[in-house]
Design a protein that fits this description.
The protein is α+β, with helices and mostly antiparallel strands. It has one domain: Roll (C8orf32 fold). It is built from eight helices and six strands. The strands form two sheets. The protein has a four-stranded antiparallel β-sheet with strand order 3-2-1-6, covered by helices on one side. Strands 4-5 form a two-stranded antiparallel ribbon. The longest helix has 22 residues.
């Protein structure tokens, strides 16, 4: 049974252009998006070109207040899943591929095992966005761009060595590849989403849109900000050390 249980507006026209938290002209990414795409390319090829660009960006915890601000996307040289999903949604829409965020909640203690548990310290559930793109008449979902390939390889080797199914912000069955023909996930096993207690929270244009729809699901609280300020550098350092084992 699919984990996708929430009802979303599946009209692709509803997920093109500007929206709450999506600024296609203000983001300054139009030249990049068009430059990544060959003239006359079909939607699948256009989507893959944007995906490949985002997937190559090094993974690191991003600033809580700026990681999803459209006007700042082009300046970042690394980022987390929130930043990368925001960037990919903008790039896909800029090349006329309908795109949206699909939000999920996961069991954080399994996902963050081996690392500083930012989620536990913040006092909130682990909520994050995936990207859904409308290609060849259907919505296709992925978060396979979240970790860059060297880091994901190092993480999965560490999971194999320890005999863990998940930890270090990824799943042993997760993938860093996407063919834009089917769903591809990095943070949980598509064959067994129940193991990570995946809960579908529905679709939104952006973080701003999601928090407007469901303000109780994700808030930058004082506890979260304190946890971030005190531990984000250590978290990124731990991941950096793992990347060096590649």
């Amino acid at each position: 049974m699919s984990w996708k249980t929430a009802t979303c507006n599946d009209n692709p026209d509803a997920w093109l252009g500007d929206a709450d938290g999506v600024e296609l002209d203000g983001c300054g990414l139009r030249a990049l998006g068009m430059g990544l795409t060959q003239t006359g390319a079909q939607p699948r090829a256009r989507a893959l070109a944007q995906f490949d660009h985002v997937a190559r960006i090094p993974f690191a915890v991003s600033d809580l207040d700026t990681r999803c601000v459209p006007s700042l996307l082009r300046h970042a040289r690394e980022g987390d899943g929130f930043f990368k999903t925001t960037l990919l949604v903008h790039l896909l829409r800029l090349v006329a591929v309908p795109a949206r965020m699909r939000w999920v909640q996961l069991e954080s203690s399994l996902l963050t095992r081996g690392l500083w548990d930012f989620v536990r310290l913040s006092g909130q559930a682990f909520v994050y966005p995936l990207t859904e793109a409308f290609i060849d008449g259907r919505w296709i979902c992925t978060d396979a761009y979240t970790m860059d390939a060297p880091l994901l390889a190092a993480v999965q080797r560490t999971l194999d060595r320890r005999g863990w199914e998940s930890g270090f912000m990824a799943h042993r069955a997760g993938t860093g590849r996407w063919d834009a023909r089917g769903d591809a996930y990095q943070r949980f096993d598509a064959a067994d989403p129940a193991a990570m207690q995946v809960q579908d929270l529905g679709c939104a244009h952006s973080l701003a849109d999601f928090t407007r729809q469901q303000p109780h699901r994700f808030q930058v609280t004082g506890a979260m900000r304190l946890a971030f300020v005190s531990q984000a550098g250590h978290f990124n350092q731990e991941l950096g050390q793992l990347r060096l084992t590649q």
